[in-house]
User: What shape does this take?
Amino acid sequence: MPVMLKKYLTLLLVSWTLLNLLTILNHTPLPSPLQGSAPMTSLYVITPTYTRAAQRAELTRVSQALAGLANVTWIVVEDSQHFTEKVTELLSRVSIQSVQLLGAMPPEQKNLQWKKQP
Assistant: This one.
């Protein structure tokens, strides 16, 4: 996929996500594309993460930001072969509904050249 297309799709996804978050924060329901004009009632936030020094602090900030929203399900996907204790412990403490999944990156994709380019 060409680099410009990737950048465009990323920008489009970020813009759509921000629009939805602003709509939720303003308490103005968006129409659901699956249900005609019925308002959206659930928000699913997917957070990919990997083990590092600042991981707990970053996930804590995300959980605090989501705690003020209604009908939120937080899906945390770890880049690991097993569940890490600090993520499991953090998710057990948060007041929002959460799901912990594993999605380890294949070893052959960990050191690709495109990741090293600015």
Notes: The first strand starts at residue 43 and ends at 49. The chain is about 40% helix and 15% strand. The CA atoms of residues 31 and 39 lie 5 Å apart. The mean pLDDT is 76.
